[in-house]
């Protein structure tokens, strides 16, 4: 797989991406979460999407992986943002959504399906709001609306994941990633620790940056509540959330699905803040379902579509 770069001229950033599949197939862009990279999408999920004949595009957000890291920007003023001054953030979710569009432009794709996980879900939502002509369908995974009354991390999880000294070595970073998964990601779905370590080692080499994570966090914090704008969306939407998620409480996914007309909501028993390999084929089926609706707009209208709520239990 060859890594390519898309230039966002307005922002002056280069966005790393990998595209797989046939360019003439329907494109889907996968947007990862805070401090995560395109390599964090589970391979079984990518393969399942390819089996559905998608042109699968994974990207590194700005300040992640091989995309531009904005070291010259000032450190975020979280107190000012919390006090109601979103301009204190180094950049916004709209800016991050424009990076998605830059990737589409680089590929010559006029319209794509967009799926995002965690912060990536918020970016995907923002792309659908800000660029409705470019987003055919939306899949929002373990994310939220920006309303501070929902989707919050559990305090004990925050304390456990982000406690300790700043990361200064690869070994410390890898250990933190394993600990973070054990605390927040696994739920009741086990994942091989050696695979977590393998991906964490690769992520560190591709571009670990604690300061960048703070800038992304500031963008999320400054974005505010998208509920009103989400109510105006008129595209097929799938929302997925784990009921054991303590990083983004399931109330965030429920609120997202409640806001978006005609959306489908899948709640997964025992799933934490991660995408278990065993469920990736099913999640790809959900993405294909909303994409199928988007490709037949004459047959789908949000006011006519019943909200489908699915509670998924898996024998492990």
Task: Set out the fold topology.
Layout: E1 4-8, E2 13-20, E3 27-31, H1 43-51, E4 55-59, H2 78-82, H3 93-107, E5 112-117, H4 119-130, E6 135-141, H5 155-162, H6 170-185, H7 193-207, H8 210-222, H9 227-230, E7 237-242, H10 250-259, E8 264-268, H11 280-294, E9 308-312
Parallel strand pairs: 3-4, 3-5, 5-6, 6-7, 7-8, 8-9
Antiparallel strand pairs: 1-2, 2-4
Helix pairs in contact: 1-11, 3-4, 5-6, 6-7
Structure notes:
- The chain has 316 residues and is of the alpha/beta class.
- It has a single domain, classed as Rossmann fold, CATH 3.40.50.
- Helix content is 39%, strand content 16%.
- The protein has eleven helices and nine strands.
- It has helices spanning 43-51, 78-82, 93-107, 119-130, 155-162, 170-185, 193-207, 210-222, 227-230, 250-259, 280-294, and strands spanning 4-8, 13-20, 27-31, 55-59, 112-117, 135-141, 237-242, 264-268, 308-312.
- It has a nine-stranded mixed β-sheet with strand order 1-2-4-3-5-6-7-8-9, with helices on both faces.
- Helix 1 (43-51) packs across helix 11 and helix 5 packs antiparallel against helix 6.
- The radius of gyration is 18 Å and the shape is globular.
- The mean pLDDT is 92.
- InterPro entries: AB_hydrolase, AB_hydrolase_1, AB_hydrolase_fold.
- Residues 26-274 form the AB hydrolase-1 domain.
- GO terms for molecular function: triacylglycerol lipase activity.
- State the CATH topology: Rossmann fold
- Structural class call reads alpha/beta
Give the number of domains.
1
Radius of gyration from the CA trace?
18 Å
Identify the overall geometry: globular
- Helix and strand string, N-terminal first? EEEHEHHEHEHHHHHEHEHE
Q: Residue-averaged pLDDT, rounded?
A: 92
CATH superfamily: Alpha/Beta hydrolase fold, catalytic domain
What does the largest sheet look like? Answer: 9 strands, mixed
Report the uncertain regions.
none
**How many helical elements?**
11
Number of strands: 9
């Amino acid at each position: 797989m060859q890594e390519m770069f898309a230039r966002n001229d307005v922002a002056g950033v280069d966005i790393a991406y990998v595209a797989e599949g046939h360019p003439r197939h329907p494109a889907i862009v996968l947007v990862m979460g805070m401090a995560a990279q395109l390599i964090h999408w589970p391979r079984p999920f990518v393969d399942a999407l390819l089996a559905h004949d998608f042109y699968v595009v994974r990207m590194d957000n700005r300040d992640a992986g091989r995309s531009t890291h904005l070291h010259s920007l000032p450190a975020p003023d979280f107190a000012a943002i919390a006090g109601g001054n979103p301009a204190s953030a180094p950049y916004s979710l709209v800016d991050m959504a424009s990076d998605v569009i830059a990737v589409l432009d680089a590929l010559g794709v006029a319209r794509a399906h967009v799926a995002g996980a965690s912060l990536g879900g918020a970016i995907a939502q923002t792309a659908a709001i800000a660029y409705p002509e470019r987003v055919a369908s939306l899949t929002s995974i373990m994310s939220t609306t920006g309303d501070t009354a929902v989707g919050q991390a559990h305090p004990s999880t925050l304390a456990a994941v982000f406690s300790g000294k700043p990361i200064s070595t690869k070994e410390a970073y890898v250990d933190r990633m394993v600990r973070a998964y054990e605390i927040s990601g696994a739920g009741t779905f086990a994942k091989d620790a050696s695979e977590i370590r393998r991906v964490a080692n690769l992520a560190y080499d591709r571009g670990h940056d604690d300061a960048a994570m703070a800038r992304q966090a500031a963008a999320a914090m400054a974005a505010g509540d998208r509920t009103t704008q989400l109510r105006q969306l008129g595209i097929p939407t799938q929302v997925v959330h784990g009921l054991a998620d303590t990083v983004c409480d399931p109330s965030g996914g429920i609120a997202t699905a409640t806001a978006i007309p005609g959306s489908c909501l899948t709640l997964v028993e025992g799933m934490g803040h991660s995408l278990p390999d065993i469920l990736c084929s099913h999640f790809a089926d959900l993405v294909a379902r909303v994409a199928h609706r988007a490709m037949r707009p004459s047959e789908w209208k949000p006011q006519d579509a019943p909200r489908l709520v699915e509670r998924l239990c898996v024998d492990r």
